[in-house]
Amino acid sequence: PNPILQVRHLITAFDTEAGIIRAVDDVSFSVSKGETLGIVGESGCGKSVTALSVMRLLPRPMGHIDAGEILLGATDLTRLTPDRMSRIRGNRISMIFQEPMTALNPVHRIGKQISEVFRLHFPETGETEIYENALQMLRKVGIPEPEQRMREYPHQLSGGMRQRVMIAMSLACKPDILIADEPTTALDVTIQAQILDLIRALQQETGMAVIFITHDLGVIAEICDSVLVMYAGRVAETAPVRELFSDPKHPYTRGLLTSVPRLENRRKSRLRIIPGVVPSLYELPDGCRFQNRCPHAQPICGTQPPMNPVSGNHLAACHLSAQLPPVRKQHTEGAI
Ligand code: SF4
Ligand code: MG
């Protein structure tokens, strides 16, 4: 399949008082039409910064893309003027966030905010048509009594309803790519499941690609086709979802999988802690960034591991990926 988005050797850095840090350091991945790519890792591993880089929404002036390409078709988004990028954002690539309250404007009614999206991207559309489109989007995301909701303010809606409004707004322009950054984390389990089902249904209808950012491997197992595991700003492993769960070739991925709680609990669970801590981006070790937590570390791990191919689309950034002991079956049973 033809990738619709290709990120190549992306480096994103932040200027901070304590120095410059690379929050994303040489990250590559691609996603095709209709595909769902999961990006998983503990907090601070660079998932959100990767997404914000693609959207060109890094906090300015501290955050900047220092190297790499973000190709949407043939267009390199890193080279676009802010003006051209703003026409792509919300139109060809949309993003939904963990807490929709921060993305919705509290002082404007829901109807006005959805209409704004249409007005921005289709300025020649008439007001009646805009109203009808907005209403139709709210119906599509399963909001009851949409006429009434249009007149309400964000605080009058529940968290789940607000996230549906955000999804409606982000899909209003039929984007080619939807980036969802932990969109269900703040919601209770039942609502989480409904939102995942909704995203999946809308994706089937529109054929859009979805990049789903989460720390929840249960969610990955449920909705993703392929997975990118990030650790301390780098890619640890990438694979089709079934292969990642059945044959993980990076010790970090194995650690994440072992810590997945049992099936019946997984929806409300976060990643459990792997012993040790993620190294500070200010004091990264030479070589493999996982070495202080890795049960298999060897002297060679003091040099940067290459992305070793395991099979077709399966790569692992570990010196020992070919020599790791087989995974015990029960590691993955609960996960998929
Ligand atoms: Fe562990 Fe070495 Fe592989 Fe890093 S390269 S994950 S330290 S075995
Ligand atoms: Mg995040």
Describe it for me?
- The protein has an eight-stranded mixed β-sheet, sandwiched between helices.
- The two termini are 25 Å apart.
- The protein is globular.
- The protein folds into two domains: 3-82 and 176-333, P-loop containing nucleotide triphosphate hydrolases (Rossmann fold, 3-Layer(aba) Sandwich); 100-174, no CATH class.
- Mean pLDDT is 90; it is low at 267-271 and 331-336.
- By secondary structure, the chain is an alpha/beta fold.
- The chain is 32% helix and 24% strand.
- Magnesium ion is lined by residues 43, 47-48.
- For this structure, the CATH topology of the largest domain is Rossmann fold
Q: Strand share of the residues? A: 15-25%
Radius of gyration: 20 Å
How many helical stretches?
12
Coarse morphology: globular
Overall pLDDT score: 90
Quick one: how many beta strands?
12
Spatial strand sequence of the major β-sheet: 6-7-8-3-9-10-12-11
Instruction: Write down the domain tally.
Output: 2
Largest sheet: 8 strands, mixed
Protein name: Dipeptide ABC transporter ATP-binding protein
Domain ABC transporter: 5-257
Organism: Desulfonema ishimotonii
Family: Belongs to the ABC transporter superfamily.
In short:
With 336 residues, the protein is α/β, with parallel strands linked by helices. The chain has twelve helices and twelve strands.
